[in-house]
Amino acid sequence: MAASSAALANLALSHLGGSSVVITDLTTDATLEGKALRAFYETARRETLVARAWHCVQKTAALTLIETVSDAAPEWVYKYRMPEDALVANRVKWSGIRTPVAGQRVPFAIRRDTVSTTYDAGTTYTVGQYAESSSIWYRALQTTVGDTPVSSASDWVTIAAPTTPDGVPPEWLFCDVDDAELEYTMNATDVRYFTPDLDNAIAAKMAFYAAPKIAKDAAMQAQLAQLWSFLVTQATVNDINAEQRDPDPISSFEAARLW
Prior knowledge:
This protein is α+β, with helices and mostly antiparallel strands. The protein has helices at residues 5-16, 32-49, 196-214, 218-240, 252-258, and strands spanning 58-62, 64-68, 78-81, 86-93, 108-112, 124-125, 130-133, 136-140, 144-145, 156-159, 171-175, 181-186. Helix 1 (5-16) crosses helix 3, helix 2 packs across helix 3 (196-214) and helix 3 (196-214) packs antiparallel against helix 4. It is flat and about 70 Å long.
């Protein structure tokens, strides 16, 4: 596994070939190569991490319940806060079922809400919008304006405080399961999490994006695109060996033949 993003950048330069530059710190490197690779590092990292549910960046966490949805005829029953380090939601777990079969997988949907900040009496709030009043967060139950949340229980409901990391409205996960746990791909920024396969794939993707700037060779960029696909496929084969799932249960027809 790579020790730093600089190590991945140097691996990317190896894919590009011909450069004598050695990058020691990708965040500050002032060379043309360093600037080009730095510009695409985050994109290459995230694109590679979402290519598959890689075992080295999988995480399971109990979800924080925001509220039980009480709207008339709600589409979903429960609303949870997505973990802040989640990159991709892979599976909602429940009832201790390790290998769900058809009919046992939990449907879910992820939505990003707009989040208001301090309640404003002159703002018209629609169903589902949020406002904070006296350090308490509320969600509008119906379109309302001028109704202070603390004194208008018919228009507002108290909820667990949403978070807005870096000013970006949070994501919610909706499902019909209480006490839900989420298996997800985390947005791992520490390169020590990555396997050698992922190191190589991320570096190839960095090289792909930086090739027009560094190598100025369109043919090389096409080759690097093929290389990334090959490396992801190879990494997938190796990643499959990281777990052994329970065998699928036999069908009722197979069971009948056994008796």
